[in-house]
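Reviewers of the previous submission asked for a worked example of the structure-prediction workflow described in the proposal, so we include one complete record here. The input consisted solely of the amino acid sequence. No template or homolog information was supplied to the procedure at any stage.
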Amino acid sequence: MGFLREESFSVFSSTFHVLSPFQHLCSTRWHRSLGDAAALPGLRDAAWQNPLQELSENKMDDDDDIPQLSSHTLAALQEFYLEQQQREGMKTSQGFNQYSIGSIEEDWQLSQFWYSDETASCLAKEAVLAAGKGGRIACISAPSVYQKLKEQDGEDFSVCILEYDRRFSVYGEEFIFYDYNHPLDLPENLLPHSFDIVIADPPYLSEECLQKTAETIKYLTKGKILLCTGAVMEEQAAKHLGVKMCKFIPKHSRNLANEFRCYVNYASGLD
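From that input alone, the workflow returned the following structure tokens.
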């Protein structure tokens, strides 16, 4: 997991202004790997999937230093924005469920990649069973699991979401702002060892991120831990949380370049 060199570009065509998705590839901190760029929605054109290479090969305009992109890339960007507009339109339609996965779009700059509906359902079911009747569940950087849990109206459990992205504050008091860089900077009402299970998906595949997130997990849980992270983090997960890899393989709505796995420290239904 690395960082791209941060640069700012503005890319113009004769008919529209393009900024955000291009910057996602030019100055984004990637969660899993740079290979995940190929999974961005709507960006299926080969030229767009490697725009940085295209920029390096194309000459810059001597007058204003604006990168020149091919017609294929610009067409892919137009398709991307069209799909975005269509998804936004669905949010205003009747019957929209604010807790459905995708109701809040992935933000790649925040290293967000949502689980598939099947995976989110499986993890939510496991969390409910592990928490027990009247149990308390904490979701750390795992909003799609939180959303799936909230779809289960009438179930006998409570849940909260600890998340850096303040868009999830629409969920009211159950939202708790969380920055893994400050693992114990938590509200006073979050008492130590007050959750029956903590499910966490650290945003970056680095030992520093895992270690700091682990501090929060161990502070909040009564004992049970369900961790979702890359297969490459198996040794570090065991070191910092005492968890073991499960047979269940989680999937994301966008295919990721790195293999993802689940880890637990109790007898779970994920094996």
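Residues 1-49, 90-97, 99-103 have pLDDT under 50 and may be disordered. We consider this example representative of the routine output the project will generate in years two and three.
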